[in-house]
Write a structure and sequence with these properties.
Blueprint: H1 4-27, H2 35-57, H3 60-63, H4 68-71, H5 78-87, H6 102-116, H7 128-154, H8 164-193, H9 201-221, H10 223-227, H11 246-260, H12 270-277, H13 281-291, H14 296-313, H15 325-328, H16 334-345, H17 349-358
Helix pairs in contact: 1-2, 1-9, 2-5, 2-9, 5-7, 7-8, 8-9, 11-13, 14-16, 14-17
């Protein structure tokens, strides 16, 4: 390992840059809150882990026993921070999410107790090797669990067209973390359980380097993209709408549209929906944008697309061309019809009809 010093310097540089970058994202006033905070903390924690790994590879834990006070607990915070970042796309944030930090707090408590009272209060009376094996195993399980949970929540987020940049960033982050989790599991299985001398530690370190540079700098250098889709809670900060009213009003709006099918009128407007439901225009706008993450136009056209899908497969409308269905579904132009149909269904109306016939 003659070039170990070169690796050490390289990783220390990346770690220090990641820590600084994460700090800037957390305190940045021009970035949306709390999304930038959670992403910044994720970058910060990743860089800090790389810093501790670099010290571990250079045997600092042998020279300074206090080194392990954060070395073991820190990886337990990575998964929860990723989950908090994904949850920040939803408004309001889920309650009791801080319970996900319990493993980190538990491991931190054990590290402090073991450090201060190592002769008396060891971790369930396990020896050091068994305790280390258990902690590394739990870290790998934590990575995989939060990869799955974050991906499951991400798939349920109704990203709009203006969210494209954030959707790509969050998807990359999830894919990276999943690959990182599998790599960590492979490293744990091969080295700790099977005792096969295939060391993936440096590869894990390089993965964190990729994370810091691609995710961190992309997020920090393109703040406008993040601001464009920040939570609308600020916009409606002075609203008179109470949260207790939200479920009933949303249900009233959606049931009205589904029963009355007002969206079939080509020039249907937000004001028309307000008059029909007796809900103020600004409240409807807040309900849709803040609590459904969906604008009025997107909501109405999504209903029209669903109607078009029914008509395209209906025997009574087989005599009409796929393009002519647009007017029956409430669209006022073929351009709008094709745009929304392709966006939602991911194919043209004609292709959809052909596909359904083959099925």
């Amino acid at each position: 390992m003659g070039d170990i010093q070169l690796w050490t310097v390289a990783f220390l540089l990346v770690a220090s840059q990641g820590i600084f970058l994460g700090y800037l994202m957390v305190i940045g006033k021009n970035l949306p809150q709390p999304r930038s905070v959670f992403l910044g903390l994720f970058i910060f924690a990743s860089a800090l882990i790389l810093l501790f790994w670099t010290g571990f590879w250079n045997d600092l834990h042998r020279l300074y026993p206090v080194f392990e006070l954060l070395f073991n607990p820190l990886p337990f915070v990575l998964g929860p921070l990723l989950l908090f970042y994904i949850d920040s796309f939803r408004s309001p944030l889920p309650r009791r999410q801080w319970v996900h930090l319990f493993p980190f707090l538990l491991c931190s408590t054990d590290s402090w107790i073991s450090h201060c009272f190592s002769d008396y209060l060891a971790f369930f009376h396990l020896d050091t090797d068994h305790k280390t094996l258990l902690i590394y195993g739990l870290q790998s399980v934590s990575f995989l669990f939060y990869s799955y949970l974050s991906f499951a929540k991400w798939k349920r987020i109704p990203f709009q067209s203006k969210d494209r940049w954030n959707k790509r960033l969050s998807k990359f982050l999830l894919q990276f973390f999943t690959a990182f989790s599998l790599l960590a599991l492979a490293n744990f299985t091969l080295n700790r359980l099977l005792h096969i001398p295939i060391f993936l530690d440096v590869t894990l370190g390089l993965a964190i380097c990729v994370l810091v540079y691609l995710t961190g700098y992309a997020s920090f250098n393109v703040p406008r993209q993040m601001i464009a889709v920040q939570s609308p809670s600020r916009k409606y900060g002075n609203s008179s709408l109470k949260k207790a009213q939200v479920p009933a009003l949303l249900q009233k709006i959606l049931e009205h549209l589904e029963v009355q099918k007002s969206y079939l009128m080509p020039n249907y407007r937000l004001e028309d929906l307000s008059n029909e439901t007796e809900i103020p225009v600004h409240h409807i706008s807040e309900l849709l944008n803040q609590y459904r993450r969906q604008g009025f136009s997107e909501l109405i056209n999504s209903y029209r697309v669903e109607e078009a899908k029914k008509l395209l497969t209906s025997e009574h409308y087989q005599h009409l061309k796929a393009s002519a269905i647009c007017y029956e579904a409430g669209f006022n132009s073929k351009t709008t019809y094709y745009h929304w149909f392709n966006k939602i269904v991911q194919c043209s109306p004609a292709q959809y009809r052909k596909r359904m016939k083959e099925v």
